[in-house]
Amino acid sequence: MSRDYPLNKVRNFGVIAHIDAGKTTTSERILFYTGVSHKIGEVHEGATVMDWMEQERERGITITSAATTAFWSPTYMAKGDDSKKCRFNIIDTPGHIDFTIEVKRSLRVLDGAVVVFDSVAGVEPQSETNWRYANDANVPRICFVNKLDRMGGNYDKSYQSILDRLSKKAVRMHMPIGEEENFSAIIDLLTLKYVTFVGDKGIECVFEDIPAEYAEEVKKRRAEMLEKIVETDENMMTAYLEGKEFTLEELKAAIRKAVIANELFPVYCGSALKNKGVQLVLDAVVDYLPSPLDIGKPKAIDPRTGDHIELEVSDTAPLAALAFKLATDPFVGQLVFIRVYSGKLEAGSYVYNATKDKTERVGRILRMHANDREEVKAVYAGEIAAAVGLKDTITSDTLCSEDFPVILERIIVPEPVINLRIEPKTKADQEKMGLALSKLVSEDPTLRVTSDPETNETIIAGMGELHLDIIVDRMKREFNVEATTGKPQVAYKETIRGSADGEGKYIKQSGGRGQYGHVRLKIKPIDYTIADADLPKTVKRYDHFEFINSIKGGAIPSEYVPAVEKGLRESMDRGTLAGFKMVDVSCEVYDGSFHEVDSSEIAFKLAAAMALQDAVSRAKPVILEPIMAVEVITPDKFYGDITGNLSSKRGQIEGMDERGMDKVIKAKVPLSEMFGYMTNLRSMTEGRAGFTMEFSHYDVVPASLAKEIQDARK
């Protein structure tokens, strides 16, 4: 069986945005115009296709990234001409900060993105975060300024906020006609056409000549657009300065090249709710976003040698595919979403999981349409699908051929910032809870489950109150587990501010063979100015921990060194001040001693833990707390009350912007002070203010508060 669609006509892209920018509404229009759904589902009616989970429909937010496949032939093509028709693999991602991992892992496997903005608000905090993630993943983008029909909607202002806060490489491609409720048409500055949207749900685009009254303004804006396009190509720039007029094909080719290289971000406008402008964005996806062939050769590592290798984007090459998401389907069981980078994956075949060093069988392969599915025999290079039957594969695992093992770049998972104690209501719920949590953890890498060694209670950790609220709700609905929860707790951490030496000796004599381990070490904060690639061979750097082996002359035999390292890591996980995980510590083991008979791995492990405890007590240990970037949008009259309230919460006010008639207050506030803030804010502002927050960084807890935290942990 061969590929059913040419690779150069495949577009893998995602729709990303800040919460409430109209992202899911835009996705629903895309499905309608591409013929996937025969009616448009509205968020406010709880009838969307892409938001298919019960919680999503109830709350009007996206929680998981939904994947769907659709086809699109550009509007400028004659009816029946499918020569430019493309297959879209679309992922609609969440906008809420608590579900950031969904955006992160989606961007890891996508070739392009449509970034949606609210024309009233412009660039919002989560827009910045998503943009940063897209920069990290090197994903080409086009922008869509949505909701131009809203009161206060302003395309030019939103475009300016993109230039100011995201990238100077943005370029305006449209000029809207009419403002707010009078928004009626779009002028395409590239094709010089006046576009209106007629028929049921604006399904037909009508292209006309530009009315004379707009000619002057269009001329000015088009010149600005052309300058930005030619700046990306030296030869074009020279020709432009010499007065050359470029054809539409030449300009499109230049834009495409610049977009793929992340040198240009075209900005479009419209109103998804009023069915205006979405089709033109889809045309831009075909014209400018890359196919899998355009993004260069995927990079991987050979697990046998550690060498970096480049893969061929070809159906005949050996298989290399990345698992980027797990989901539980009530009808078919566990789905593993995969992006195939090279080769082909066939239903019924055996594949090698290079990350786990295990062979697995692929039962069935499904091409997804949100929560509907179509069974296929195989998926090929550049495609996205879901596999059924993989038992050991989780997010970030690489599936490949056993003859040609490779490991693709992993998805980096952010650390949780909030904890919640959870216990089952009945004994029957006890077993079911364990099963439910293990399934939810396999689906969601940002969810962590641990048990408190002292109280034996189960603790779940996640990205925010909403995240954990959804988890508890899903346990109840999907797994029928009733549970009670404690108050949310902040995920504090510990670290050191100074350097110190430490010594640990573990000696135990209990008749017969004893135990002996002796470790001496130095600790200091990790120096992140030294890149991983420049570290000496004696240094092993992990996530927030560094181990340096400076043992000379066999003072500690080499077979016990891994036990020393393990003892240090386990001790750091438990912390020393208040039992929180210790981070960013460099441990250099330089001396010790051993006993020919009594020394053992366990003795050295315990000695290492004692040495660390000893050193930390003199290395200025501190407790760290998560600091959140908070943005409050409020009518002017409540400005003073809100800034005063944020200051009382140990907040640092960082600035203020105007947004239409409202004020936007930006501040950095400790997470511990933000629990229940929405209720507080509503009562302060007659329910008229709103806020967003996202994790910014960890900072040292003031000494007085640190003592309180320590006392509470005793």
Question: Can you tell me about this structure?
Answer:
This protein has 16 helices and 39 strands. The N and C termini lie far apart (65 Å). The protein has an eight-stranded antiparallel sheet. A seven-stranded mixed sheet has the order 2-3-1-4-5-11-6, sandwiched between helices. It has 714 residues and is α+β, with helices and mostly antiparallel strands. Helix 10 crosses helix 11. The chain has five domains: 282 residues, 3-Layer(aba) Sandwich (Rossmann fold), CATH 3.40.50; 110 residues, Beta Barrel (Elongation Factor Tu (Ef-tu), domain 3), CATH 2.40.30; 72 residues, Alpha-Beta Plaits (2-Layer Sandwich), CATH 3.30.70.870; 126 residues, Ribosomal Protein S5, domain 2 (2-Layer Sandwich); 90 residues, Alpha-Beta Plaits (2-Layer Sandwich).
What shape does the CA trace take?
globular
Specify the number of helices.
16
Fraction in beta strands: 25-35%
Supply Rg. Answer: 28 Å
Alpha-carbon distance between the two ends:
65 Å
The profile of the biggest β sheet is: 8 strands, antiparallel
**Mean of all residue-level pLDDT scores:** 84
Order of strands across the biggest sheet? 18-17-23-14-15-22-19-20
What is the total tally of β strands? 39
Provide the CATH topology of the largest domain: Rossmann fold
Uncertain runs with pLDDT below 50, 5 residues or more?
37-65
